[in-house]
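From the thread on structure requests for the teaching lab: each student submitted one protein with a one-line request. Submission from student K.M.:

"Model Solute carrier family 40 member from Colletotrichum phormii, tokens only."
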Amino acid sequence: MTQSQPLRDEEAIRPDEQTPLLRNGAGQGDGSVSETHRVDPRIARRLYLSHFLSTWNSRMFEFGAVLYLATIFPGTLLPMSLYALTRGLSALVFAPTVGQYIDNNDRLKVVRASIVFQRLAVSASCVVFYIFFIGLPLGDYGRPGLLAFLSIMACVEKLYSIVNMVSVEKDWVVVIAKGDIEALAVLNAQIRRIDLLCKLLGPLFIALIDGFSTKAAIIVNFSMNIASVVAEYYAIANIYNDDPELQEPKSKRTPVSETPLASMNPGSKVLSYVKRSASDFKFYFGHRAFLPSFACSLLYLTVLSFGGQMVTYLVASGYNTTYIGIARTISVVFEVLATWVAPWLVGRIGQVRAGLWMSNCQVLPLIGGLVAFWVFMPKPLISATSLVIGVIISRLGLRGFDLCTQIIAQEEVEAESRGRFSTVEAAWQNAFELLSYMATIIFFRPLQFNWPALVSVAAVTSASLAYTLFVWQRRGHLIHFEKFGL
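Reply posted by the TA:
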């Protein structure tokens, strides 16, 4: 039996848009589902189209930028490292500002701005990459200056991609689902499938073109980026116009300083920003959805993801790129499978219990793979294969857990605070991702990969324990011992 958590008086009287999707009464998290609403197919199609275009362009450019920098600056990882570090830090530093912007502005205005500024940043970057590639004389300061400009554009692209992601995935889909957890689970799952499809095919597409011609890849990247603006821009506008609830203003605004920033001196501006950031982080830590959100963020502290770090290790262990590609494809298949398994499980036992199951499905294969990895360390190929198998199987639990925690956060976080909550969550994700890079900077030799792998499994285990604590707090128990006669 699920423990009931009474709402505060002011929450109990809020209208639908300002309250969580489900009341915190009996049955929450145990599969109680509203059957009163299904998403309009036209709205769903437009949402998927907009998200596909946004994600495809983002994934294609993200990977393309790596290829372009590797071609322009051969023999050194420094430009790529500076570019990636600046991009990641921007998301961490400016998260509170992004959250304030989302929460205090009209929904359509925010998403449209994210579309336009993302595309402008990518287009400007492609122009600079092209200038680099054709070898125009730039002088002593030209190349560093353009690299700095690229880093700034990367920050702009990253920040507005967060704006788009938080607005659409954390707010719009919640409003569109209108309280139906099954509908919300379906929307989340389909969006995640689009993410995974773009994650797999976007880099492959631009890599194939780059293999033929880097110049052609830059031109294609630029052209597709520009061509998608109109379709994405109007798809999101049509969704907004077709759903009256999206047009409703949020009743409460995130408090901001009454003194305009322009009239403050630099010291006061910094102090105001620090206070606002501290307020957002305090709100995040004190929220009832903190534990599942933080647990999901902690999963970003990993090198076990078929990213650059693990791929580099696998190559050093004797894997050829074909086998790595096959393993990565199989892992994506497991991730896509999770987008069907998780919604089905949520419908059967509720998002809270489903999250616990998915968390175990992630952590147990990783622990098994890590143990085998350490046991067979004298045999690098067998050791690496053990880790690969564990990582592949764990992807089912990873994506399933991600979907469950996303539903919990969407359901728990109030409409007027979704921006600040989700951007602080994104800040933690970026912080943990940067820490994962630090792990391989410290232990940079392939023979030392066992330590970053251990850190990764420890982080995943900690995330699982944090979520288990949340389940215990929410339900009052983890196992129905009475079913075993205990």
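TA comment: Confidence is low (pLDDT under 50) at residues 1-36. Residues 22 and 28 are 7 Å apart (CA to CA).
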